[in-house]
Amino acid sequence: MQRIRYFCLFTVVMALMASEVFGVVRVARRYNVIEVFGSSAQAWGEYSEVGPVSIVDGLGRPVKVKASVLFDPSFSFGVTYGQLRNDHWIGDLGFRYLRINHNLDFAGTNVRFHQYDIDITVNYLFLRLPTSAWSPYIGASVNGGLTVQSPEGYDTNSSLTFGLSANFGLDLKLWTNRKDQSFVTLSSVNTWNAVGSGNRPRFLQIGAGLKYWFRP
Fold first, then answer.
1. Nearest-CA neighbor of 89 among 127, 56, 132, 133?
2. Which residues of the chain have pLDDT under 50?
């Protein structure tokens, strides 16, 4: 329960930070945006732990193992809400679920790992998307949430973890209303988890999403 309280507190703090970010820049135009997305996920890096399990050699010494050995390809999906300011800067707050597929043997017990994150993101659009047909973007995210271990037949364990990610992709406009008050884009949604706290797995996530942009 204490971890759940920390997670709820983190969510509130992130929301307050997002409201401050959205209110800093004075702009001529503003759009709200709602996004739904899904991604494939491939772990990278080296690890000496997965969840509560330490990886050791035959003599009991800790060793690091490549992610390609420990983890299978996986997937994530989520939803975000944000605002476009000054035609270039977009900040959003979102939820992301990530399934962590591992190759470890837990003495015959089926153990699943899940990541539930709240993300605060700032991206920069290179072109003025409201008047352009497409625009590439780059940005960064702060990620925080629960890494959950679910052994079949046993109590679920969780730990509060944090990360930093780089974002990159492309928005392609599919539809615009006549008065230019709203539009829809098909988006390339890609995230590289650069840094993670504790034993939080890091992933390269390549995916796509739909965004609905509308004037407040």
1. 127
2. 20-22, 24-28
Going from the C-alpha of 94 to that of each of 35, 56, 104, 137, the distances in angstroms are 9, 37, 31, 18
Length of the chain: 216
Please measure the distance between the N-terminal and C-terminal CA atoms of the chain and give it in whole angstroms: 38
Query: Is beta strand 53-54 parallel, antiparallel or unpaired with respect to 89-100?
Result: unpaired
H helix or E strand, kind and range, residue 70: helix 67-70
Q: What domains appear along the chain, each with residue ranges and CATH number?
A: 2-214 (2.40.160.20)
Does residue 96 contact residue 78 with C-beta atoms inside 8 Å? yes
The string of pLDDT tens digits covering residues 55-80 is: 788 888 888 889 988 899 999 999 99
Rounded-to-integer distance, Cα 213 and Cα 15, Å: 20
Q: Give Rg (Cα) of the chain.
A: 19
